[in-house]
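=== Structure Prediction Worksheet ===
Name of assembly: unnamed complex
Input type: mixed (protein and possibly other molecules)
Chain count: two
Listed entries:
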Amino acid sequence: MTAEEQETIFRRWLDRHIGLMLKVVRGCAVSPQDQDDLFQDVLLQIWLSIPAFRGEAKETTWIYRVAFNTALAWRRVERRRREKHETFLKFDASPQAQSNHADSSPDREIVERLYAAIRELPKVDASLALMHLDGLSYHEMAEVLGISENYVGVKLNRIRKQLADQLKGANNEL
Amino acid sequence: MNFEDLQKTWQSQDPGAKVTIDTDVLLKEVRRNQRHFWAGIFWRDVREVGTAAFMTWVFLHLAILSRVWSFYLSSFAFFGVGLFMLVDRWRQRRKRPVTNDPLRSCIEASLIQVNHQIWLLKNVFWWYLLPLAIGTGIFVIGLAWNIPMEGRMSRMELVCFLFGSAAIICGFSFWFVYWLNQCAVRKSLEPRRQELETLLASLQ
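=== Predicted Assembly ===
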């Protein structure tokens, strides 16, 4: 793969899937500084993974894999090596900054509470919750994690209950 | 609100909406990161294997110049350490976790790597410190044996004095290196192993 091809794919993925990457980042890191740091790591790993991409997996599945694997290996101490970086993005992850279709106050609050609840889950469960909320099929989730679809189902039942407990008050019927 | 409604609300958010990216600067930055990433690995190898290679060359050079047999042995000790590091690095590089693998495979590969690092550091005495200690010991004895005798000290006393001094200095230095390695195992690698084992268990 040439450098130009790699760059084209990277730009396309960034354009199409930036939301997905940011959801993973927000689901795994708390402070804006950590989120910024993890986001840079995710971007680097996605860039490095592109030459191995043969189109056998869906782009989203691929990006989820890279993003989750990076998030699981990510360490706060790594931050020091990126201190001198140029600013290439303005990454305001505060609730106030989340202008979106769900920007009416109650919806935004629900999303924020969901993020908080997801971050409380064990890491693997948090990955599953993020994918489930994004509407991935059991097959896709199993592919990302490397487990059976049955096991995905079992885990999701448990995760739904856990999320429901944590969101009690907002969503009693979860 | 049921789960489907929650999903709709979740999917209607656009986390990227407030993110403005300068793609050209980002690409430059990602490439810089990539270079930094590989440079880090390269310089670590140079530091560790390069030091052993340099010491091998130094002792070999001394051996050829002075024709003292003990220098050859010291050079061989350093060569052995360097070769071990090189072979180990090469073997482990092939087992490195790949981020586009499924999560489970990636965790398993990371666990193998961490276990290997723990093994290496726990056994640092055998593959690093002991060969260097033997090499240094032989070097000191060889040196003492070849110093022209002029004072009141006998040859054996000189050998014992130099060897004893070297043993004390090396003993402290090597103990410190050993202690640092065991600290790294306790404080960094063992918690990482536990974390990975927990993650793997949650996927089984």
